[in-house]
């Protein structure tokens, strides 16, 4: 195996710590006799445990070795794979190098672990050639990734030669992209000591859709129209969703990502303390063939916080133009984002009857850099009762509308007032009470 892996060119820059490279080294040590059987067996079991962990995380079935190699292929970001993601596999000299690597991967697909198993007296590789996962796949966090990997793995198993292998892999790059961006909807970032950032997939993102959010039709339409223009490559604006808590601002963003994911939309969630990393994030995603929403939830700043200046520069006003494939969507309970104090008015100037404060203008200028602002205000009592009854009907709760409204009124008085969130919490409570066999839905406490 180590001789096979050493011939990889485009896909040869893998970390020595990957399962593939570790197994190759184990076989090298077996051949040169530099490690004992006990040491080699321990290393094999360690890599097998890692392989099983990957299989568990992604719900892989059948041939885990093939699934793992396929996973490597579609997550390896190199100049060839990224070019295929953007423009497809056009004719060029690099294709010959890629086909050479794919021929090597075909050899790895067919690799015979029999000599290693016989030498160590183990059968773990034979067992994973027809593996059956435990548990129901509908509950997997990575179901989307699992289905894509296993579908491609099945095609690669049937590839007659490296040309057919080439068509399968490059077709996947064209349709879905390469790396974690091609497989996942949403990400968080993690700062590195060298000033760069790593992207970490959010595997358990809420599957909510916009239809699940009852009411707010005008607000949802504004958000849909702007996002539709963005994914189609037309001009679009940064968006600020502001208003009362529990009205569906964050839910709307998640729903938008779910709705437009098939069209190439991805989301990167960034927290306030990470704004200093915004330039690094943008540098890493600006040339990718996706549309990115940089998402900032519950955005607000106290008077002593200066992170908003990083955000202002990125949105509009920095030397470098914001790339066309990036927008910023933020939610906030504050209309102006930055807390204002009477002290801000200390520099007020009065000229020809007009009052101006440089401090206030600087703070208010942040919100003005969002081209679209959408107000999610607290529902009226009538709207609240409509949300409650609609949620109850969808949940199959067999109560009259009048009883639901009466019980919902009791609930909201002691649970934060009327809002969509309060309505959903009330429905959750009712469902839990009914499942417990209780006859009364009167709120406890």
Q: What this model shows, in words?
A:
It is a single chain. The chain has 445 residues and is an alpha/beta fold. 49% of the residues lie in helices and 10% in strands. It contains 19 helices and nine strands. The strands form two sheets. A seven-stranded mixed β-sheet has the order 2-1-4-5-6-3-9, sandwiched between helices. A two-stranded antiparallel sheet has the order 7-8. A hairpin with a 5-residue loop joins strand 1 (186-191) and strand 2. Helix 4 crosses helix 9 (143-157). The longest helix is centred in the N-terminal third of the chain and has 22 residues, at 37-58. The radius of gyration is 27 Å and the shape is globular. It starts with a helix and ends in a 10-residue tail after the last helix. Mean pLDDT is 83; it is low at 341-348 and 353-360.
Brief digest:
It contains 19 helices and nine strands. It is α/β, with parallel strands linked by helices and 445 residues long.
